Amino acid sequence: MSQRALRPGRLGRLGLAVVTVAGLAVSVAPAAQASAPVKCRKGDFCLFGGPHRTGKVLYRIDVKVTRTGFSFPEVDALEPPVVPRSAYNPLPDSFGCIVRLNDKAHFAGDEQEIQGFGDAELSGAPVGSLTPDCG
């Protein structure tokens, strides 16, 4: 390496350029992702804008289901709340779970329940938080 490459001023400018390029990449990525349609995959819990799993996917959670259990994270606050008309629940009936949808954050307010595997029609009430309830 040459002596010129090791000068602090040159290293600082190079570091700033790398941070600037990385910052641009990060700021461009969300806009590109926002325009791409969100799809409900096989193992996802999804809330849809229309009845019978139609319309825009308003919210999606990647649920990991195995033969003996699952990973379904609680969602304490959807900001802003969504107003779904239907849902898809990937949890098998054998787990004995329902999914509770509350109209306010922190599991407060009025509640809708999704019972059983597969498609569910919803009332169109807002959803501000959701959690699985097994028992």
Summarize the structure.
This protein is 21% helix and 33% strand. It is an alpha+beta fold and 135 residues long.
Key terms for this structure?
135 residues; alpha+beta; Gamma-B Crystallin, domain 1; 4-stranded antiparallel sheet; 3-stranded antiparallel sheet; 9 strands; 21% helix
Can you walk me through this structure?
The protein is an alpha+beta fold and 135 residues long. The chain folds into 2 domains: 3-35; 44-134, Sandwich (Gamma-B Crystallin, domain 1). It contains 1 helix and 9 strands. A 4-stranded antiparallel β-sheet has the order 2-1-5-8, with no helix packed on it. The chain has a 3-stranded antiparallel β-sheet with strand order 7-6-9, with no helix packed on it. It starts with 7 loop residues before the first helix and ends with a strand.
